[in-house]
Amino acid sequence: MPDQRRAAPERTGPVVARALQILVAFTAHHRVMTLSELSRRARMPISTVHRLATELVACGALERDSTGSYHIGLRLWEIGSLAPRGQGLRELALPFLEDLSQVTRENVQLAVREGTEVVFIERIAGTGAVPVLTRVGGRFALTATGVGLVLLAYAPLDVQEQVLAGPIERYTERTMTTAGQLRAALAQVRAHGYAVSDRQVTTDALSVAAPIHDGPGDVVAAVSIVVHYGSASPQTLAPLVQTSARAISRALSPSAPNGPSAAWKPEDHQTRRIAGTVQRGRPPVRDTR
Questions:
Q1: Is the pTM of this model over 0.70?
Q2: Rounded distance, CA 231 to CA 220, Å?
Q3: Which of 15, 18, 166, 284 is the most buried (most CB within 10 A)?
């Protein structure tokens, strides 16, 4: 008589969660770790980390160097590049970002919102541009950067309230850290269609950002330009960033007849005139206060 007993279902949930806990232990400041370091950051026993890390190495999610330390594997990067809000948006927006970078020679950034944080999915560094703290794949607070303020301004109300309830991190003496300040700033973003981060992240940088809309009109991303403080005014930069954002938005729309060809190009007269103003603003005027 056949055995009527059924095998117990495989419990994959906790295993997957622990494997993910190992992967997210890696950060920009912890790119390579020994087994003991990985165990400490993942808050799991060394034996468990060793077993799971071995499996992650086998499938390419982790790699192990000659010293025995671990780092993120190429396979994980390949999988991550398939994320539609990341690579797909980035590839579509890249021609317009390159145009904006070409005519201004400043930092250009593309970002999306993930929960209550900004995730940067592209950054083009301009020649001699001001150093920035952001990196592709990096996260930042919604309350300080230009792209963050744009994404927060158009985020669902519950997300806004969660962020404004704090705590709100301060980066410089000019960082807005009260709910009242931020509510007023978000209202300005919605009224004018762009955000300004004036020395809120570093005292030598000014950022102007604009929203990117999808076909239905929802804000799905933001584009920004970051310049040396004093080299150009927000009113000068805003038309450049808004034009780039509109071009990307048109390309995102299913009804766009020609996609990227609808973008503005460096030859556009007004763009060249404004960009020339930005470039002539160098060398930057440093904040001495």
A1: no
A2: 29
A3: 284
